[in-house]
Amino acid sequence: MHAYRSHTCAELNKSNVGETVRLSGWVHRVRDHGGLLFIDLRDHYGVTQVMADPDSPVFAEIEKVRSEWCIRIDGNVLARDESLVNPKIPTGEVEVFIRDIEVLGTSEELPLMVFGEQEYPEETRLRYRYLDLRREKMQRNMVLRANMIQSIRKRMWDKGFNEYQTPIITASSPEGARDFLVPSRLHPGKFYALPQAPQQFKQLMMVSGFDKYFQIAPCFRDEDPRADRSPADFYQLDLEMSFVTQQDVFDTIAPVMAGVFEEFGQGRKVDAAADWPQISYKDAAKWYGTDKPDLRNPIKMQDCSEHFRGSGFAIFANLLENEGTEIRAIPAPTGGSRKFCDRMNKFAQGEGLPGMGYIFWRDQGEGIEAAGPLAKNIGPERTEAIRQQLDLGVGDAAFFLGGKPKTFESVAGRARTVIGEELGLIDKDRFAFAWIVDFPIYEKDEETGKIDFEHNPFSMPQGGMDALLSDPLAVKGYQYDLACNGYELVSGAIRNHKPEIMFKAFEIAGYGKEEVEKRFGGMVNAFQYGAPPHGGCAAGIDRMVMLLADEANIREVIMFPMNQRAEDLMMSAPSEPLSEQLMELGLRVIPQDQ
């Protein structure tokens, strides 16, 4: 017999009754039923109930066993009495009578319990992550992640992509976040960087003649953490293709994403990839207040400015006299009660606003009537026009925000989400995907008037060089994101592969040719030797698993994550370097004022 096990703790069933078996695992739970000891023995695969009574030759040793001890047992497989069968586990029809036991590893008192789903402070969970990972939910999440990545790889190979690896140590190349710098011992005073993404390398592969590339790529960005973003490293499905249009990229990656979510979504609905809407960046901001809308929420905001222009509500009427301002309405089906409107008003105040205007409609026995402070100020004719535009009725409400869109859109988007949640309008049993397209390349600083890049500077402008010779603020890029349930899952672009267009694009933003060549010399030089049109995208692995696992925090699907302050509590990183290390690298640490 094998030194540690003949079976895993998920394999035994009625067909094994009468056999002598060997199992190894952790003591999940011990139950003493008046001299009859039951142990739930757990390994990575499942749980088997093992038991002993005073007739067992090692009963005295079994009495010493405690939670999370690692043990090996030998014993006989017995059929459980029919009334004691546990249908919740594969091994629920049998149990093992212990004949021999070996303690492989004892455990000290646990800082967190593995059995059950008790809540513990994040600091405790991350400091003792190896214990936290023993919990059933965490084991399930990590296996889901592994299986999902395996599925992605197979799907990409089936589409004719080859997997290639790109360098981990490279040159610093600002791509919107801070680099992690790595000092060079052989070149004192110079630094490498960990790649924020394989962006330049994958484009250079296309110049090299490789037609389809993908990689499950590690990426490194020194960013502030969020619930859906790791503060240091993350993984993405990275891909690039030559001789493609924007639609070609959509047609390639969308079936992969749809297939993965259908395979691992536990029955939740996934719309056919061909039906995913393509929404312009401008419309996404207008309708949803974000470029990563949650389309499970049916609420669609609308411009209601004309109904308030010259109205009796002076705040909105005066505001609309300023150029570039508008009034946005957030419909709230079934939200037509003063109590709910007051709650949303309080939400707005919590967001730093004085409040949110609102109208709600009711029937007082004489037909539909608009109520609320706004309704009194603008009169029945205007409120009725608003109701009809928003397609609302009795028992419904609408909330209003105004100003220059960029000043209130994000708050409006959050209000839309809260309204959808509180009124139960969101379809929780669905993954709703949408392509966000037509991102503007440039933006204008309101204070300085300077034109700078608003989004990816390396995307091909729609209209090419001709577009760059007109109004920069009207230039859109072949850039796109894929949103799902309120998260950005994919981001990509058709690349600007022509040096003359690239230099002009950067010139508009105030970057001279010399600076572009200095920062991106490798790519610019390569583009002078017959670069093909190419494009691609990257999908966030961590966020995909987070959605599939129905988790609200990305740390629940990362094996060894950092905390909110970008610290690894388990490994005590970051740590202070040794003096010898600093001397070898020619570095000196300047003390920071506390």
Q: Strand sequence of the main sheet, in spatial order?
A: 6-9-10-24-23-22-19-12
- From the alpha-carbon coordinates, what is the Rg to the nearest angstrom? 30 Å
Structural class: alpha+beta
Main β sheet profile: 8 strands, mixed
Unreliable sequence segments: none
Task: Report how far apart the termini are.
Answer: 62 Å
Bin the helical content: 25-40%
* Number of DSSP helical runs: 18
Averaged pLDDT, please? 94
The count of β-strands is: 24
Note the beta-strand portion. Answer: 15-25%
Shape: globular
Pick out its properties.
8-stranded mixed β-sheet; 594 residues; 29% helix; globular; alpha+beta
Please sum up the structure shown:
The chain is an alpha+beta fold and 594 residues long. The protein has 18 helices and 24 strands.
What would you note in describing this structure?
This protein is of the alpha+beta class. Helix content is 29%, strand content 24%. It is globular and about 90 Å long. Helix 4 runs antiparallel to helix 6 and helix 4 crosses helix 17. The longest helix has 23 residues. The strands form six sheets. Strands 6-9-10-24-23-22-19-12 form an eight-stranded mixed β-sheet, with helices on both faces. A five-stranded mixed barrel has the order 1-2-3-5-4. It contains 18 helices and 24 strands.
Secondary structure layout plus pairing:
Elements (H helix, E strand, L loop, with lengths): L19 E14 L2 E7 L4 E6 L6 H4 L7 E10 L14 E12 L16 H6 L1 H4 L3 H23 L3 E2 L16 E4 L7 E4 L4 H9 L4 E9 L12 E10 L3 H19 L4 E2 L7 E3 H8 L13 E2 L1 H4 L5 H6 L6 E7 L5 H13 L6 E7 L4 E4 L1 H18 L6 E7 L1 H18 L7 E2 L1 E5 L4 E3 L6 E3 L10 H5 L10 E6 L2 E8 L4 H10 L4 H7 L1 H6 L7 E7 H8 L30 H7 L9
Parallel strand pairs: 3-5, 6-9, 11-18, 12-19
Antiparallel strand pairs: 1-2, 1-4, 2-3, 4-5, 7-8, 9-10, 10-24, 13-14, 14-17, 15-16, 15-17, 19-22, 20-21, 22-23, 23-24
